[in-house]
Amino acid sequence: MTSPLISxxxxxxxxxxxxxxxxxxxxxxxxxxxxxxxTVMSTFGLLCILLWGLAYIATSRIKDNSVQWLAAVFALxxxxxxxxxxxxxxxxxDTLPDIYEQDWLTGLFYSIYGLNDLLFAIxxxxxxxxLSHSTAQ
Length: 137
Hints:
- By secondary structure, this protein is an all-alpha fold.
- It has 6 helices and no strands.
């Protein structure tokens, strides 16, 4: 990686995915998060989010600029989750108080996960842009 900041960003993105899933599911002992979005946040979906996190961390170890297209894929994946979150929020906004009442951690998760993904979509997009321009010169 050309910059410790970029490498660190990949690690932070990975840890956000991994710690977020493990925290909200209480290490897969609580299925509250799956109850409100059985498709995207199913156990399988949550395991895939963990795998994405591991992929981000693994990418942080690459020492050259060859990850630009991987960063683009990561940015697109994050944008997809942002869109899914926006659609979910549009259809479930009024149920958030009930979710918080049942489990505040699940309510918090559904309130912010799309914003988190937007932040990392911007980061991965920036990495793609920066590495694309540094290899083009």
